[in-house]
Amino acid sequence: MIDLRILRNDPELVRDAQRRRGESPELVDEILAKDEARRTTIAHFEMLRAEQKATGKQVARAAGEERAQLLAHTRELSARVKEAEAAQTDADGAYRQAMKRLPNPAAPEAPAGGEDDYTVIEHVGEPRDFSAEGFEPLDHVELGKRLGAIDIERGAKVAGARFYYLTGVGAELEFALVNMAMDQARSAGFTMMIPPALVKPPAMEGTGFLGQAAADVYHLPGDDFYLVGTSEVALAAYHSDEVLDGDSLPRRYVAFSPCYRKEAGSYGKDTRGIWRVHWFDKVEMFSYTTLEESYAEHERMLGWEKQWLDKLELAYRVIDTAAGDLGLSAARKFDCEAWIPTRSGYGELTSTSNCTEFQARRLNVRGRFADGIRPLATLNGTLVAIPRAIVAILETHQQADGSVRVPVALQPYLHGRTTLEPVQ
RNA sequence: GGAGGUGUCGCAUAGUGGCCUAGUGCGCCCGCCUGCUAAGCGGGUUGAGGUUAAUCCCUCUCGCGGGUUCAAAUCCCGCCACCUCCGCCA
Question: B19 C1' – A63 CA distance, angstroms?
């Protein structure tokens, strides 16, 4: 949700923002009309209600004939107040519903256009040249099988397509990566969290996942719970309906949680292996700060993600996501894409979004400052999404004999192991 | 899952249909007084919205949502959270 005043004062700015996302500018005018209608009904209700209250006080003091007359009047007023209140509730609901559909305007720096209109900000590291080394790289499915790390067949048997087991050294890798990520975040000042992965509708709605993204979300209709697609949901809702002391900002949390995604509309895409799956575990960073500080915080988030990828000794590039690919909540998003040898291309490993005040307004997260109370800004960033990290590590650091070299920084988390060896 | 209890301003509490424009104490903020501090004295102190150039003013807000009534913190119904106990369970 954006600031209504921006819409009222400069609607063309928001219409233009819609165009840059490739979305309809007409929504802006729909919202303005509904806001106008809403305010009219409010004024009408409040006028009647004030009269009702004033008359009620006279009733209490009056007696006899005067009292009877007042009662007759106020009885009739009472019905009109009820009507006016219902009209106000309806108009307000209609306005809110329209407002909820409006995405966060993209930052001016974000490139206009859709998924393919990103700009590349930088490249870090050189993709490994396997032909120069004289061998054909295996993909993570084959490597995972040989190492006894990934069992996709049994994942499909038990849970269906896009499920897997991490076994043996694969499971060890997950714990190693999680611990290493947590250590990094904690030393950067983040508070560790284990949040719920099942949330009620307002948390999902507030983070912006019930709009177009709803098709990608698992819902438990019996209890009206949602399975989170990212711990961002539980972390953003953590301070909902709260007023935080401005001096306590930024508040930085790092969470470990499972993530569930239906991956609707991705049939036939990335079907092999564990690159795109219905469930995975993730370590996610989250910050609450001020709007003014959010831009610098976004850069810091990106910095921590790059630091992480550097420690995994991966080659990657950073892209500035185009407006149309931002999702409802983000004003700007940077993705870090690692080179994946058997994809012969870059694939998204981490992603960081600045949601400015958008989520905070929906979830009612505010800060108290010297000059008053204002909505905060929220930011999120991946540290490690386990399956994709495993894919990148196995494929990038594989050796001709089918073993995998362990990046130096990760070795202490794997009991000093320098390589992962095939099981047979 | 079952039974009972509780839910009022930052905290603690008062408030059993109109006197509530929600009182009082503590805390906090501003001022006075004062060698300093404390005490004392005076004032202020929920949030959201409408209106406005801004103030004034008005409406909503006593866990949430309905209802009864001319009128609800107060009466009725439903829900939620917490506490106690029983059952079940990792």
Answer: 17
Average pLDDT of span A342-370? 94
Chain B nucleotides with an atom closer than 7 Å to a protein C-beta: 18-19, 47-51, 58-60, 66, 70-71
Q: Looking at the predicted structure, is the pLDDT value of residue A357 above 80?
A: yes
Q: What pLDDT is attached to residue A56?
A: 83
How many Cβ atoms from other residues are within 10 Å of residue A353's Cβ? 26
Cα torsion angle, A377, A383, A389, A392, sign? positive
Whether residue A269 is predicted with pLDDT greater than 80 in this model: the reply is: no
**A4-101 and A115-420: identical CATH topology:** no
CATH of domain A4-101: 1.10.287.40
Q: What are phi and psi of A62, to 5 degrees?
A: -80, 165
| Catalytic residue IDs of A | 261, 276, 348, 351, 388
Examine residue A250 and say whether the peptide bond preceding it is cis (omega within 30 degrees of 0).
yes
Strand B: protein residues, Cβ closer than 7 A: A 4, 39, 42-43, 45-47, 49-50, 52-53, 55-57, 59-60, 71, 74-75, 77-78, 81, 89, 243, 366, 373
Reply yes or no on whether the pLDDT at A183 is more than 90: yes
- CA of A38: nearest nucleotide by C1' is B50
pLDDT given at position A55: 86
Spacing of A405 CA from B61 C1' in Å: 62
Domain residue ranges of chain A, discontinuous segments joined by + = 4-101, 115-420
* Nucleotide with the nearest C1' to A77 CA: B70
- From the CA of A373 to the C1' of B28: give the distance in Å: 17
Please indicate, yes or no, whether the overall pTM of this predicted structure exceeds 0.90. yes
The CATH code that applies to domain A115-420 is 3.30.930.10
d(CA A2, CA A416): 50
Does the ipTM exceed 0.95? no
The per-residue pLDDT for A68 is 81
